[in-house]
Task: structure prediction
Amino acid sequence: MAQKPVPFSELLKDAPKNWGRWGANDELGGLNFLTNKEVLRGIKAVQQGKVFTLGVPVARPQGDPLFPTRSQPMRTMAMDKGFYISGRAQAMPGGLEYADDVIVMYLQGSTQYDALGHVWHGETIYNGYDAKTTIGGLQKCSIQPIAEHGVVGRGVLIDAARYKGKPHLDAGERITLDDLLGAAKKQGVTIEKHDIILIHTGWLKLFYDKGMEGIFPKGQFNEPGLGYSLELVKWFHEMEIPSLGTDTIASEQSAHDESGTTLPLHMALLHYQGVIFNEIDWLTDLAEDCAKDGQYTFLFVGAPLKIVGGAGSPVNPVVIK
Ligand code: UVW
Result:
């Protein structure tokens, strides 16, 4: 018989919270840790000038990786040479013609940031704002303040797949705090306070190798990733981690079997601590490069779009080593 899920209010009763830490009007959460000093610490990590862009291609005809309840981005031409050939458009004086297009997509239907008001349980979103403020568009904790601030600091890549000696983690496989620290140690890197953490699992590569069926066999949403434990969320709190990025769709082990809950880190990290979640990052090339040159730290720059009231935003994060 399926286990009755433990309510988050009970599972997370001892989990640390940052609500009120930066005042009653805070909508930035962990980004408050990313001060000018932290930006300079990120810049100091740059040693070689190598650039990696972490966004995945958007609106491929054969489909993009996304959460199973979301539909594929749709891009269509609003103007192209055909309009001129068919007489529906005229060249501008001098002869200029142009192509235009329109995209319809989930704001979280690609490489993305989650806004702090994206998930909650009960009646309140991050920092205690009423969950009703999400109705019709996020009046509080939308993606806009995150986009105004930018996500810039020192990033560190933790290669969980390499640590476990496989090209990709298995469906539902847990990464524990010991794994996280063990992988860092093996890589010869220390995770410092205020680091932006990126975790490579190899999961997204599996999508491009095998399609949706590769990552969600029979439609089952059962991703690998960091798994909830009180110890892990206390560590994030002590380390004042501003942001977490992964090459999975939802940035954490989907199912927490001990409690029967789904996505508990969305609650314990994003909703309680204001850790900014960055999902569907292409980390394969970065991970390979880090394994080759041994440099696992870098400047990380994430600039989501300033979408008014948005629950998230597509982004093409940039890593400079
Ligand atoms: C949900 O948690 C529903 O979505 P995401 O993985 O985009 O955060």
